[in-house]
Amino acid sequence: MRHLIRLIHMLSPIIMALVFAFIFGCSHHSAPTSSNIHPAHPISVKIDLTNPDQSENTLLIRQSERAKMPTGSTLVLSDEAIKYLQNMLEAYFAVGRRLAEDKYDTITSQSRIFLSALDQLKSVVNQEDRDMIQILERIHQYGQQLASSSSIQYARKHYGFLSHSLLDWLHKLALPVKIYGFVCGMAPHVPQKGVWLQSAAEVRNPYFGSTMLKCYSQTFKLTSSLTTQGGSNDQ
């Protein structure tokens, strides 16, 4: 018994030191702060709701307009312009695929390829068509912002605005390829809550990536003359 008491007496300073270290050490560590913005979400930005380019119903309006167009009334680009358009779309699709993979490495380079092809296209279209020139300038603006993105969150935000403006123009064209369109419906702070376009039918959500890769609320297709709507799949 004496040995036990002596052992406790010898160990008590060590035990007290450990207790104080634990109490004061933990109390001086700042608690980690949590954000209500998921890492996959586009960064929050102030939205101008008076801007029709950001209105929630623009997509359905554009689809309705295209569906009502008589056959042959869509704008037909020259062969040279079509070549540049295809280069634009290939770069745009590549950006979407990387975002869906939660990758940021090639976003800037693909965005610059997109901008280069856009500049070439602008040089060969009718310069007197002010409506087209204005929308191409808006697409260029969002493309530049995408190329300058400093993180995948900002890239997703600028990609959302680029996608919406690109769709606003493509719905008027006789397209050389079929394009599959989707609406996320959950992506905050971007037009339509996240519209995007793909070259393939398989859903790959660029706004949430692996978090909700197959999630969408609306589908549609752009062909050479019409738009058809599809269903939804939230999972």
Beta percentage is: 5-15%
Unreliable parts: 17-58, 60-72, 225-229
SSE topology string:
HHHHHHEEEE
Radius of gyration: 26 Å
Shape: elongated
**Distance N to C terminus:** 66 Å
**Average pLDDT figure:** 76
Widest sheet, order of strands: 2-1-3-4
Structural class category = alpha+beta
Main sheet overview: 4 strands, antiparallel
Helices, by number, come to: 6
Walkthrough of the structure:
The chain has 235 residues and is an alpha+beta fold. It has one domain. The protein has 6 helices and 4 strands; from the N terminus they run ααααααββββ. Helix 3 runs antiparallel to helix 4.
Features:
single chain; 235 residues; alpha+beta; 4-stranded antiparallel sheet; 6 helices; elongated
Summarize the model shown.
By secondary structure, the protein is an alpha+beta fold.
Please render the helix and strand layout as text.
Elements: H1 2-27, H2 58-68, H3 79-100, H4 107-124, H5 130-147, H6 152-170, E1 179-183, E2 195-198, E3 218-222, E4 227-229
Antiparallel strand pairs: 1-2, 1-3, 3-4
